[in-house]
Every structure is written in structure tokens, then in C-alpha cells.
Amino acid sequence: MVRGHNPLTRTLLFIAGVLTMLVAPLVGVIPGPGGVFVFAAGLVLVLQNSRWAQRRFVWIKRRWPRAGHYADIALRRRSFRRRRARAKDLAMAAAEAEAAGFVDSAR
After folding, report:
1. SS3 for 50?
2. What predicted TM-score, i.e. pTM, was given to this entire model?
3. What's the angle, vertex CA 104, arms to CA 100 and CA 106, rounded to 5?
4. Per residue in 15-59, pLDDT tens?
5. Which residues of 21-48 are buried (b: 16+ CB within 10 A; e: fewer)?
6. How far apart are CA 47 and CA 58, in angstroms?
7. Distance between CA 58 and CA 34 in Å, rounded?
8. How far is it, in rounded angstroms, from Cα 75 to Cα 17?
């Protein structure tokens, strides 16, 4: 949610995002990947300004994690950076444990 903006501003940004997403197929007719970027910009506006859209996005991410991964990259979400850093640390610790001879016998 955008903090510091009044409800009218958030509502206008939400409407702008929805309209931008609706215009994306029209822009998609033009050669090139323009429609994708227009849709992504609208999605960002909607997700930043709507709690319902955020909850729905989280549900979709849990159902189809790969789709949520690319959206997180585009939105530069803190939770994505945190998960990526955690996975990197875990992989590093596993590599160090294997190099030290602590191999998991359950595998």
C-alpha cells in the first residue's frame, strides 16, 4: 500500500492502473513487446494501491510460484529480495558443510 497518500489519491492511482491494464491489449497490437510493459505498469499501480489486489496476488503466488517470481522481480519487492538472500545463504551453508565433510545421510 502506498503510505502517505490520501484515499482519493490511492483511488485515482488504482483507477489509472486498471485503465492502463485495459489499454494494454490495444498497445499489444503494435509490433513489439509494448503491451507487456503497459500491462506491467498498470499491474504495479493496482498492486500498490489495493489491499484486495495484494491479497489476491499473494494467493496466486502461492498457487503458481513461478508466475509470482517474475512479478516480484518486476515489482522489486522486499520479500522477494529477502527470500532470494535466504536461499543464497542456505545454498552457501550447504556447500560449506559438504566441503567440510558433513554430508546429510538422509539424501
Report:
1. coil
2. 0.59
3. 170
4. 999 999 999 988 888 888 888 888 888 988 998 888 898 899 888
5. beebeebeeeeeeebeebbbbbbbbbbb
6. 10
7. 26
8. 14
